[in-house]
Input
Amino acid sequence: MPALVLEKTKVLSRREFEVAETLGPHDVRVAIHTVGICGSDVHYYQHGAIGPFVVRAPMVLGHEAAGTVVEVGGAVATLRAGDRVCMEPGVPDPDGRATRLGLYNLDPGVRFWATPPVHGCLRPSVVHPAAFTFKLPDNVSFAEGAMVEPLAVGMHAANKARLRPGDVAVVLGAGPIGLVTALSALAGGCSRVFITDVQPPKLALAATLGPITPVDVRTENIGEIVRRATGGWGADVVFDAAGYPGALAAALDALCPGGCIVLIGMPGAAVPFDVVAAQVKEARLETIFRYAHVFPRALALMGSRKIDVRPLITDRYGFADAVAAFDYASNPRPTSVKVQIELA
Ligand SMILES: [Zn+2]
Output
């Protein structure tokens, strides 16, 4: 079948490529409709590796997908042909210790689409476990369904923060993950969100998505702005969706006493951390790796329109132009948030 194949660093082709997959009794076969391009896909394209994961053989890219079930295994009772679905791209070992503890995203044996050596979903069809395949509400489009995967990161971060109604949150970074984190924070009960970035179009878009105050950190100080707005107290939660070296210091400065910092962005190298600055606020530090148990909740929030990701889908390409889509996503205009490829 035709697929978008990363041959090696900086070399992509859309060509015939067979992925051997047989439909097991607990699997479904899904005709792919829409796939979003993630920062990790672009990173593999440009650099050939993320941390310990190195592309050593041609690999199909893509892990943010929605489509239609075309065939179900004999033991599948929850889905049937014709169902519109999205898929959770990481499939853990069901017998793994982390999986049995409910921490399946941390299972060392997890197989995650487009993380070498596992092939991704930029191809006409995939076989996937029914347990990691979720029905879209009728009012949720395929394009929105393909946004559930990045949204799941923000949802997981909001869970880790243990938000309470009325919390004030800061999100550092207004890229795709920062924006879905802001939406998740509001859906989780935050009264308002301050979001930072250095690109005015991203901040302008963020301001249209709810009670979100944009902060351009080229000219403004997030800590000062949050203190001014909270009677000098600070933010209950700071989500770092940027991962730049100074983010931790900015997060500690903006945080209220007893507040929580959730680290989402991945710095390229070890970063310094002012332990005492964290201690004097008894800051609670949380980290996330991908997500677990949030796809059904993300879809429920989309279905009720408590979360609307449609403004984040800024660019669409056909499958024939998939390489051009990746070239664009590698160097997008600042007005772009999510680039998607339509296969159907
Ligand atoms: Zn992604």
